């Protein structure tokens, strides 16, 4: 039924079909003009320098005068008539390599990758008698094998096998990597503040700029070349990572014309075509991911609101300026759907090349959570013999969410004989509209007795956008291996909470619904504006030379990052002369007949008070300057080393005030640090297939703008408030950066046909880790603080094995697994330990150590995948889970909150068919086990109580792609 429904859905998408048909006609016309000869293209790599490109290598067609040479990037291409050839690759001082049986097909590109190694006798020749086609999965494994830093990678081929539509779905298969909330990448079970995400080697803010990682689900896989996860530091990388650096590398200069269109749809029985879905009237432009002005602030933030209003007509006009819709409406929900297209090609301009890449993708996702739960609990402060947790607030209800993500990427690459210039622009537009109806029970005086019941309508809209520009150049200074690379990347980000409408009404004993500010606050409207700009510049120099008659390479350079943020909040409260709201319908509150006027002196009006919140507005400025130097050299034929030193200057300035207004900060320098970050990586080649690695590095984790501020950010649904801790408070000292010493060991064995085994161990020593924590005795308020020092010890296993050892026909069936086990220990500071001792239950013993907040104790990924290029078939079953992790640190009276394991099992099937297999169908079923996402309070001697609970349900999706 689901498959039939999805097919019918495609026929209904008439407008999209017309657009795609037009694009198809254009692309077919372009493709038909492609020449009749074939092409051989690829890369020559230097096996002596960690698989760096080998410039100027010679490529000859044996038995002919045809040939070419690799450019400074190691890339080459050569047009040949259809047929079978033998190619010879050579470079002075390196062993010559021949590749036989290279098949050139008409109007096609054969891609190969060749690694040359130095030879004591330059005339030595290695002959390979089989065709070596470029295999991106093998290429990433080769990069992993030759890299001097400890890394894992994910190729475009691996992404295709997993059936993932975005980077977040795909990267879960990388060893030690997990994804939180379907968006944020965690490496080695550490929280996102310890993982750094970069785009094409440059820092980029995310749609949530307060996180150190960007939302990975915004990157469609059709623009990704590969994703590299670097787990051991080197001097050229930013110092603010501990778990890993995730580098998303978009496609570069295409070797041939590449055009594709795609369309897809997804169905979730829990969420889609559901008559109970909740929504409200938005802007006509919501479907494009932005509000067209309907939710703009209707009055000036500095507009006085009359307090003595008996004879003021102004109050009526100000109240009536606000949108009157306040209640969530039941309606039928739609399904998920997406479409996109990509285009890329390169052209010869004299002796130079010009290439372009363009991609547009659109994703419309509908989510419906029935029985969403959020709870706040504490221990009994008055009775240590009572182990039961007491509910201070318990929220349950339904929520409908419609999210639009519109991506556009355009890039140009211009390559000369000694230089390459790139210009990329990426824009991501996201609009998320949600409507919820919730029931809340609130305890009086912190106990379970005398619960007060509140119903709450919540209409929310958040608009996010990122525009990132990357300008870069790579230049070969001379033919001896002296290179210069530069990057400049301005980014502009915006997050707008537009007209959040929250209407809580208390239910009285006689069944009426009333405005009750003492119980549940006034009905409120909130506008929050966050604008951030980031300017990143980076220069890198590298020079190859001989040290002790062995290959060596020195790298040095610098980087500078400037970030500026402007954040402000406006809020408006409403009340009425008649506190009873008819039928408990929130829409009646601002109905025209119910507004206060001078004539009737009765009804709803805008409450007098301060609309703009100066304490909840701030400006932040961040400056990071860095210089580094590193040297890669061979200690012996088998032992290679990279040692480096990075120096970073970090300054954070703050403009704002405290909550009472008694302290005003004007560009206050609240953090001023200069630190040195040494790193060392050793790789010992036991043989051609086996490496032993060791590394050490010092890294840091810094508080975000929000965490280092004084602001209070209110969640209108859960009633939880985040409070910045930039200046300290009665419970916690001001948050400060954390410093981490990292040690890694790894054994890796690379086998034929992409098979491999790797064993890793790591140890991390944290000084002052930054942790999320409740305020003492307040389950509604959260902040961040440095609560002690911590140690993390971990073990990783990665194993890739095909089943060809059973029979030859099973060579294409592969089993892949990676498992991580991590033990974390934080020694609590005196204040936290004493609070826990005071709140202990009778018979409970308090240990001085606990887990590190955000650290998962284990990660498990495994999958079976089958790939047959002749059949155009790829299919697989993939499982992922991570262990229970401390999400929010308790305070003794407020228990600890733990994220519970989420067992994810997904099935994918990808089938290519038609002429030259240009058509492709993807079938994917996610969350086959139907698991729920849950976080719980855990406390001594009692069962868990829910902190948050969401049921994502199961989804089946079907997609179609046509390549030209």
The quaternary state of the protein chains shown equals single chain
Total count of domains: 2
Count of individual beta strands: 51
Helix residue percentage:
under 10%
Provide the CATH superfamily of the largest domain: TonB-dependent receptor, beta-barrel domain
Mean pLDDT score, rounded?
85
Quote the CATH topology of the largest domain: Maltoporin, Chain A
Task: From the alpha carbons, calculate the radius of gyration and give it in angstroms.
Answer: 30 Å
What's the total helix number?
Answer: 8
Low-confidence blocks of residues? 1-35, 120-136, 445-449
Molecular structure report:
With 964 residues, this protein is mainly β. It has two domains: 34-134, Immunoglobulin-like; 329-387 and 410-451 and 459-963, TonB-dependent receptor, beta-barrel domain (Maltoporin, Chain A), CATH 2.40.170. Helix content is 8%, strand content 54%. The protein contains eight helices and 51 strands. The strands form seven sheets. It has a 22-stranded antiparallel barrel, surrounded by four helices. It has a five-stranded mixed β-sheet with strand order 4-3-6-7-9, with no helix packed on it. It is globular.
